[in-house]
Amino acid sequence: MTALKEHIVKLIGRQGPITVAHYMELALTHPEFGYYISGDPLGSEGDFTTSPEISQMFGELIGLFFVDYWLGMGSPSPVHFVELGPGRGTLMADALRAIEVVPGLREALKVHFIEVSPPLMEAQKKAVPDANWHNSMDDIPPGVSFIIANEFFDCLPIRQFVKTDPGWAERMIDVEDGELVLGVGEASGPPLPEGGFRPGDIKEASPQAAFWIGAMAQRLKAAGGLALIIDYGYDQPGAGDTFQAVKNHQPVGVLAEPGVSDLTAHVDFLNLVEKAENLGLAVYGPLSQGNFLENIGIEHRAGKLLDSANQKQKKQILSAVDRLVSPEEMGGLFKVLCLGKKNTVPPASFSPPEAD
Ligand code: SAH
C-alpha cells in the first residue's frame, strides 16, 4: 500500500467517505505524498508524455501564435506571459526561442509560472531562468496577458455525480476491509439538471476549472490579451465517467496507487465555454488540436526542420507531426480553446472557425 493510500484510509476511518475531488486533490497535491509534489512524471521514462515533450514545434508555434496577436495589438509592453502547470518548462523555452525573431517582444515579456511541484520547478528554473513563480494569478502585476495552459485542466480535481431513481447522488470514496472502494452519498451543492439522464449515468463537475477561468477572465477583461487552453477532453455532452489513472504509460485503477500514479479527468470544454461566456469573454473554438496546429503552420515549420535534418531526424519529425496532428492521435483527442476580451480583434488562426 502506498504511503498516501495509508493516509487516506486513516482519514476516511476518522471522518467518513470523501468526494472524488477530495481524493484527487490529495493524490496529486498532498504536501508530502502528492504525485506532483514528490516527483517528475513526464517523458518516456516517466508516466506520460505531453505535446511539448514530443516536439519543439509545439512550443515554437504557440510562441508564433502570440507574436501574431501582439503585432496586431500594436506591440504593447510589458506583456505578462503566464503559464499554468508548465511541467519541465519546455513549451515556454521553445516559445521564447521562436519569438526572438521579432524585435522588441522578448524584452517586453515577463514570464510567470503557476506551479505546485518542487521537482518540476527545478526543471523550469533551468529551462527559463528569468521566470517568476506564483501560487495564484492574483500575485501577477496587472497588464496585457498571454496565458497558456497545456494539460493543466485535466489534473484539476473533479466531482462525480451519479443519476439514481430519486435524483442525483455523489460518488464517494470509502473504505471496506482496509481497501479503498467507490460508493455513493448524498449530493450537495447546486442542483443538477434531471432531464436527459438515465439511472447510472455519470456527470462530472470541476469547481477548480471554474475558478481558473474566472482568474483568466479578470486579467483579460481588465487589460486584454489571450488565453489558450489545450487539453484532452470533449466538446459534446454525455461523456460519462472520464476519471482515470496512468502509471508508466499504462492505465491502472484509480484507487490502486494514489500518489504514485497520475490521476486525470477529461476536460469538459462545453462547460469552459459556458463559464467564459457567462463572464463576458470572447470565446474562440474549441478547435481540434490537429486543426489548430495546421492553422498556425505546423506543416511549414516541419518543412523547415526537414530541410536541415538527417535521415533519423526526418523520421522523428514526421512521426511527431503525425502524433500531434492526426485525428486518431492527439490531434483529435485534444482540443484548443482560446479566450479573449470582447470587442477586440480575433486571433487569426481561429477565424473563420473550422468545421470540426
Ligand atoms: N504543461 C506541461 C505539464 C503538464 S503536467 C506539459 O505540457 O508538458 C501538469 C502540470 O500542472 C505539472 O507541471 C503539474 O505540476 C502542474 N499542476 C498540477 N496541479 C496543479 C495545481 N493545482 N496548481 C498548479 N500547478 C499544478
Short summary:
The protein is α/β, with parallel strands linked by helices and 356 residues long. It contains 14 helices and 16 strands.
What characteristics describe this protein?
356 residues, alpha/beta, Rossmann fold, 14 helices, globular, binds S-adenosyl-L-homocysteine
Proportion in β-strands: 25-35%
CATH uppermost class: Alpha Beta
Q: What helical percentage do the residues reach? A: 25-40%
Query: How many domains is the backbone divided into?
Result: 1
Total strands: the figure is 16
**Gross morphology:** globular
Q: What is the number of helices? A: 14
Q: Could you explain how this protein is built, in words?
A:
This protein has 356 residues and is an alpha/beta fold. The chain has one domain: Rossmann fold, CATH 3.40.50.150. It is 38% helix and 25% strand. It is built from 14 helices and 16 strands. The strands form three sheets. Strands 2, 3, 4, 5, 10, 14, 15 and 16 form an eight-stranded mixed sheet that branches. Strand 3 (109-114), helix 8 (118-127) and strand 4 (132-134) form a beta-alpha-beta unit. Helix 5 crosses helix 6 and helix 12 packs antiparallel against helix 13 (311-325). The longest helix is centred in the N-terminal third of the chain and has 17 residues, at 56-72. The model has no long low-confidence stretch (mean pLDDT 94).
Question: How is this fold's topology laid out?
Answer:
Layout: H1 3-15, E1 18-19, H2 20-29, H3 35-38, H4 51-54, H5 56-72, E2 79-84, H6 90-99, H7 105-108, E3 109-114, H8 118-127, E4 132-134, E5 144-150, E6 159-164, E7 167-176, E8 179-186, E9 202-205, H9 207-223, E10 225-234, E11 244-247, E12 250-252, E13 262-264, E14 267-268, H10 269-278, E15 281-288, H11 289-295, H12 298-307, H13 311-325, H14 330-333, E16 334-341
Parallel strand pairs: 2-3, 2-5, 3-4, 5-10, 10-14
Antiparallel strand pairs: 1-7, 6-7, 6-9, 7-8, 10-16, 11-12, 11-13, 15-16
The structure holds S-adenosyl-L-homocysteine.
S-adenosyl-L-homocysteine binds at residues 28-29, 36, 42, 50, 52-53, 85-87, 91, 114-117, 120, 150-152, 155.
